[in-house]
Prior knowledge:
Elements: H1 7-15, H2 24-35, E1 43-49, E2 53-59, E3 62-63, H3 100-104, H4 106-117, H5 123-131, H6 135-158, E4 163-167, H7 175-184, E5 197-199, H8 206-213
Parallel strand pairs: 1-4, 4-5
Antiparallel strand pairs: 1-2, 2-3
Helix pairs in contact: 2-8, 4-6, 5-6, 6-7
Amino acid sequence: xxxxxxxxxxxxxxxxxxxxxENDANCFALSEAVDGAARDASVVFGVIIxxxxxxxxxxxxxxxxxxxxxxxxxxxNPLPWANPNESPGPPCYCGKTGxxxxxxxxxxxxxxxxxxxxxxxxxPEIAAAADSGNIDAVAVMETYEDRFARGLxxxxxxxxxxxxxxxxxxxxxERLYRNVPPLIQRYAFSDGxxxxxxxxxxxxxxxxxxxxxxxxx
Length: 217
């Protein structure tokens, strides 16, 4: 529904052909599950980290939307195992506070750096500064990585996917693939976590490709 109207049915009537509409993160996860970085995996969790934080679940190449069509929306759960200085957390556009999105989005990372230094840098600039040895940037990235690990550990505890695929602008930060997986072990309810965290094979095109995969065959 959009503004109280069934958008898919209205479009189908105008175009004279069937229409399928799906969440962008679900399309992304489907693309990567069918012939991307998670090809041949049974259960895939796709993560988009950029201006916001989204997620999608694909099981045996089929999107799991859920009864309320919100399956995979991990970005609007509270940050797990929050420290005292993380609670109640920043306000989120959804009306709540302390959502994972407010911490792990690009704006959330930039805000953390601004709070620490008083300076404005973008998320890629912060990551680059950390790679160059900037002490403040390193500290901010380490905090970000620990929060990311907590968020993914929560997903693993519930879904336990075979693969987690990252997309969106922040998925280009190389250090995430090195530093986040070992941290997940601190929080996940398992003696060992083997879940691979991989970069999307199809990059920014994956969402569009996934929309095409809504029509199998």
